[in-house]
Structures are given as structure tokens and as C-alpha cells.
Design brief:
Blueprint (H helix, E strand, L loop, with lengths): L1 H11 L7 E8 L4 E3 L11 E6 L2 E7 L4 E4 L3 H4 L5 E3 L6 E3 L8 E7 L2 E10 L2 E7 L4 E3 L11 E6 L4 E7 L3 E3 L12 E3 L6 E3 L8 E8 L4 E10 L7 H45 L1
Parallel strand pairs: 1-9, 10-18
Antiparallel strand pairs: 2-7, 3-4, 3-8, 4-5, 6-7, 8-9, 11-16, 12-13, 12-17, 13-14, 15-16, 17-18
């Protein structure tokens, strides 16, 4: 499904050139709300939502009705669509890969295209506070026509992008938390975060669009050196500490007994000398 979606994206981007377009990324199993941008539905409004060519929801103020058509496409949306009766925004719950594609909301005054991208695999990365970490693109070389985007966080904030001609780092976003900490490899597009802090923990998404399109997700966790040890390592350290303590006690006992033995031996020699 993922590759089929990229094929569709390659051929359909630009078809609706007069419409506003928005890319939305969401993890499989999560929910997503596609915002219509409408603050208030007016009398007489007719607002429709489509998935590709299929009508899936509409609000008709002329008939004072709100309808969700979740039985289309063999019922794939059944029980998963929620329509806001104040803003006409559409929420899709428990996302699956087959929901990826083009969504369109329209009324006589506006039209917005949403490109919904769904991903399922997440690579976990753990790094100590103050260290650097590189999120690898797995590319060996950026080819002509390749375009790379890096996003961060639940709101998918764009933090870096590049192609064969130039690259751009947006490290002033999110109150500047990434300022002077991001580096893009100009050969592979891999992203390095230097001097990492806890506010840099979270989800990173990499999208590569070109001859070999791909989407990768990383979950980065940041720990302090004090709390770096897992339960197994903590147990090992506790056991080693105990062994060191036992060895110390054994050494002290042995040392005390050796000294007493030497003193007793010296006392015996002294007694024998006096008797003689």
C-alpha cells in the first residue's frame, strides 16, 4: 500500500494546482484531524469531504443535515470518521495504511487538498544527554531529483530539507531549541543532532521523494548519565558492589588475624628468651 501511494503521489501532485495543499503525516493506529480552516458554518453552506473520488462526508445547512458515508470502499472507514458540526473538520480514528491518500474538503468558497501519509515502523534511538546522535537516511548518495525532508514532533514541524542543489536547516523553529545543533550530511541527507538535551527527545520523520521514495520514523529518547542504567545493569552493579564489599571484609579479617598471629609468635619467642 505504501508503494502504491507513492506512485499515486508522483502522478497526482499538481493535478489540483488551484487548490491549497497540505501534507499530513500520522502513525498507524493513531488518530488525525484534517482541519477545514472554517471557524463557523454559515447558513446555506454545503461542505463536502472526499477521499480520492469518493464522497465520505458532508454538511448541508440548506437541509440542516450532516452525513458520514463510511460504507464506501467496502466499508473501510466504518466507525472511523467523525465530523465536527461547528467547523466541518474531519477526524479519522485508528488510522490504517489503506487510509493513506488524497482527501479534499470543499465548499463554493474554498478547496483544500490533504495528502495523508501513514507510516508504521519506528526505529528507537537512545542517547545520553550532552552527546550527539546521527539519524541515518540509509542513502549512500543523493541523486538528481531527490528531495529530503526532516520533521520533528507530534505536529510534524519541518526542521531540515535538502536536494542536490542546496540544503536548508530551520533550527529557529520551536523557540529555537535546535539552534546550532543540527547538521545535514550533504552526501546522504542523514541528520545529526549535537549536544542533545531532553527537549530534543521525540519523534523524527524522514521523507525521501525521488527515484527511490521512502519514509522513516525515529523515536529518540534522552537520558541523564545518572539514570543511564537499565534494571539488568543496575543489578549487576549492585552484585559487584556487594562482592567488592565482601572481599574488603575478608581482607580486613585476614589482615587482623595475620597481625594477631605475628604478635602471638613474637610473644612466644619473648617468653622462651626469658625462661632461658
Amino acid at each position: 500500500m505504501f508503494h502504491r501511494f507513492w506512485f499515486c503521489l508522483w502522478h497526482l501532485v499538481g493535478v489540483f494546482s488551484d487548490d491549497e495543499e497540505k501534507s499530513v503525516l500520522v502513525m498507524e493506529g493513531d488518530s488525525v484531524t484534517l482541519n477545514s480552516g472554517i471557524t463557523e458554518i454559515m447558513d446555506g453552506d454545503l461542505i463536502r469531504w472526499r477521499f480520492e473520488k469518493y464522497l465520505i462526508a458532508e454538511i448541508n445547512k440548506q437541509t440542516d443535515s450532516m452525513t458520514v458515508y463510511d460504507d464506501v470502499l467496502d466499508g473501510r472507514f466504518r466507525g472511523r470518521l467523525k465530523l465536527d458540526n461547528q467547523t466541518a473538520s474531519l477526524t479519522i480514528t485508528n488510522i490504517r495504511m489503506k487510509y493513506a491518500g488524497f482527501y479534499k474538503v470543499e465548499n463554493p468558497n474554498m478547496s483544500i487538498i490533504f495528502i495523508l501519509i501513514v507510516y508504521d515502523e519506528v526505529t528507537s534511538v537512545s542517547v545520553m544527554k550532552g552527546d550527539s546522535v546521527t539519524l541515518n537516511s540509509d542513502l549512500t548518495e543523493i541523486m538528481d531529483g531527490d528531495h529530503i525532508w526532516w520533521w520533528f514532533g507530534s505536529k510534524n514541524t519541518l526542521i531540515a530539507e535538502m536536494n542536490v542543489i542546496n540544503d536548508s536547516i530551520s533550527d529557529d523553529v520551536l523557540d529555537g531549541r535546535f539552534r546550532d545543533r543540527l547538521k545535514l550530511d550533504n552526501q546522504t541527507g542523514s541528520l545529526t543532532i549535537t549536544n542533545i538535551r531532553t527537549e530534543h527527545a521525540g519523534r523524527y520523520l524522514l521523507m525521501i521523494f525521488g527515484a527511490k521514495p521512502s519514509l522513516k520514523a525515529f523515536s529518540v529518547s534522552v537520558y541523564d548519565s545518572v539514570n543511564c542504567c537499565g534494571s539488568t545493569e543496575a543489578v549487576i552493579r549492585l552484585v559487584l558492589s556487594a562482592l567488592v564489599g565482601v572481599a574488603t571484609v575478608v581482607f580486613l579479617v585476614y589482615d587482623i588475624r595475620s597481625r594477631r598471629a605475628e604478635q602471638d609468635q613474637a610473644h612466644i619467642h619473648t617468653s622462651e628468651s626469658i625462661e632461658t
